[in-house]
């Protein structure tokens, strides 16, 4: 017997919320990347993850990207 739980569907992010959010590092606008479920800050070259429909706006949780 395994301790795996059935996967839950990914929760969608409210588009109105996305319009209000800015990069915590540069205070610039973010782009939504639906394919990777991330918010992209081109100015900071960071991608912030979205988990269970909640944007994780911590620089420590973001992954570096090449722009």
From TrEMBL:
Signal peptide: none annotated. It comes from the Bacteria. GO terms for cellular component: cytosol. Pfam families: Trm112p. Belongs to the UPF0434 family. PANTHER family: PROTEIN PREY, MITOCHONDRIAL, ZGC:162634. This is UPF0434 protein SAMN05444272_3699. It comes from Roseibium suaedae. The lineage of its organism: Bacteria, Pseudomonadati, Pseudomonadota, Alphaproteobacteria, Hyphomicrobiales.
């Amino acid at each position: 017997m395994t301790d795996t739980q059935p996967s839950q569907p990914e929760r969608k992010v409210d588009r109105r919320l996305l319009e209000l959010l800015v990069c915590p590092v540069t205070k610039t606008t973010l782009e939504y990347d639906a394919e990777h479920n991330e918010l992209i800050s081109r100015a900071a070259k960071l991608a912030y993850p979205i988990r269970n429909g909640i944007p994780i706006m911590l620089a420590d949780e973001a992954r570096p990207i090449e722009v």
